[in-house]
Hints:
It is a single chain. The chain has 24 helices and 16 strands. By secondary structure, the protein is an alpha/beta fold. It has five domains: about 5-90, DNA polymerase beta, N-terminal domain-like (DNA polymerase, domain 1); about 90-155, 5' to 3' exonuclease, C-terminal subdomain (DNA polymerase, domain 1, Orthogonal Bundle); about 160-245, Beta Polymerase, domain 2 (2-Layer Sandwich); about 250-335, DNA polymerase, thumb domain (Beta Polymerase, domain 3), CATH 3.30.210.10; about 345-580, TIM Barrel. α1 (about 5-20) packs antiparallel against α2 (about 25-40), α1 runs parallel beside α5 (about 80-85) and α13 packs across α15 (about 305-310). The chain starts with a helix and ends with a helix. The structure holds 2'-deoxyguanosine-5'-triphosphate, calcium ion (2 copies) and zinc ion (ZN). 2'-deoxyguanosine-5'-triphosphate binds near residues 187, 188, 198, 261 and 263. One calcium ion binds next to loops.
Amino acid sequence: MSLSNREIADIFERCSDMLQIRGDNIHRVLSYRRAAETIRAVPRDLRVISSEGGLTDLSYIGKTIAAKIDEMLETDQLEFYERLRAEVPEGLVDIMHINGVGPKKAKLFWQQLDITTVADLQAAADSGKLAGLPGMGAKSQQKILDGIEALSRQTGRANIGDALPAAQQILDRLLELPEAQRGALAGSIRRGRETIGDVDILVASDKAAPIMDRFVGMENVARVLGHGPTKSSVELLSGLQVDLRVLEMARWGTALNYFTGSLAHNVKMRQIALEQGFSLNEHALSPVDENKTIIESAEKILCDSEEKVYETLGLQYVPPELREDSGEIEAARAGALPRLITRSDIIADLHMHSTWSDGKNTIREMAEACIARGHQYMVITDHSRSLGIANGLSIERLLAQAEEVRQLNAEIGDRIQILAGTEMDIKADGEMDYPDEILAQMDFVIASLHSGLQQKREQVTQRLLNAIQNPHVDMIGHPSARQFPNREAVDADWDAVLAAAQEHGAILEINANPLRLDLKPELARMAKDMGVLLAVNTDAHRIAHLDLMPYGVTNARRGWVEARHVVNTWDFDRFSRWLDNRP
Ligand code: DGT
Ligand code: CA
Ligand code: CA
Ligand code: ZN
């Protein structure tokens, strides 16, 4: 592990906050804050800048800060920060950012009431203790409570890219226990939603106690919210809440079905069960009489698999990603569920970056990594010249890069086909960032929105249409430009965009990065219904990002997408024939 620019900036920001709480000179406080801002805006790796001796050329970075950056680059930590943390409880940083608090009050609460976490603060405000402090009153106390509530709304849902690895790790830990017969993630995380309210885990066992004990005793648990024989809940240090339920193997199917949800899917399932004379809950299918009352004397049907639940009700098995009551039950009844795409259908990645723009690995490294992941072909698509912040390529550099790609392909093309592409900016004024005669020389052209994302619907739609109608553009990257948690999708006339993509044969991307997942499932579903071509790509900026593909596949599955709708399931012959038929 080595610290990224972003992580180094975050550490300086926290140092600044802690110095401010401690009451240090404001110039010192600001020097760290400005350094953090500079680092966030730097388009190049600090490691490279440091190796060139260029750190102190950056604004607001003098010798002291540069030495601290070097220390972090070399040791992955900062002693100054560690010393500050020993002195100022780190939870105060979160407290000072609550609306209505600030550094002075954070310090006051800490010194007068020993408050060091947001939870402490909430408890003190709830019991009226804050109002008695100097400079405080009932009004300011209420304002703080409102601020805490706003904060919890903001951080209320975790991104699946954070929640899934954490959840999987917990499940794996529990399954190490000999008492655990079987385990699964349930709830929204199993359905693959983009954001997760809390994580739901089910374990089958005859002996719940050791499983519950290990769960509440994990080292990353911040608070135990409940610890019982069938259900426990914890809050992790990351803030993520996790529910664990332990049940007997014989009821696994009904339980997993119930706790996977969604609520709306469950409601429909219960209706269907009732129509067939059963009451369905997490424990069993219980026969009912004409008044829908459970017949106690009748034998209940236990299901040890989900398949059995659906089968008993005369339904096709519904994959979790479809369980949103958006037509899946009707389709399951008619035997008309789609054959959803899987990760193994995907044999190429059409969108990735290299050190030529803002990627962390060379073209050769990316190629070797794609080979290791079993891809048959790949496209290098660095940013274009307008995107200065991402070190976008001038025309000269683009052509030089294409040359390098073709040389590498000549060298290792027996192991993977490497195509020379670009992720070209659709500029804010609607122009393409490279002229047609340059695009004509590329193997594959992505066009993406990166700026002007607040523009009005007509303008954004027109920009997307310009790109789709350009005969050299093969694909629109992350079409709505949404980013979790804060960046909303652009406002566009999607009916018009999808229709144009269909007409001109342009591919729309399903970007697999969990912070994007764009097209979103609803739009992906509309697109494939209209016959628009799709592609699921990682948009990798480093080797590790190539492993984000499953998030894109899950997102596609939530859009009812099948392998036949997705071009990077095609073998290379078919894909290159398709390219040959485009300008
Ligand atoms: P989340 O946590 O907000 O991302 O969404 P879910 O779907 O994971 O919701 P959660 O954790 O409250 O509950 C997990 C599943 O349990 C939910 O999808 C359906 C089921 N469930 C929860 N409460 C009820 C209920 O009152 N009735 C029924 N039929 N099912 C429920
Ligand atoms: Ca949940
Ligand atoms: Ca839950
Ligand atoms: Zn990209």
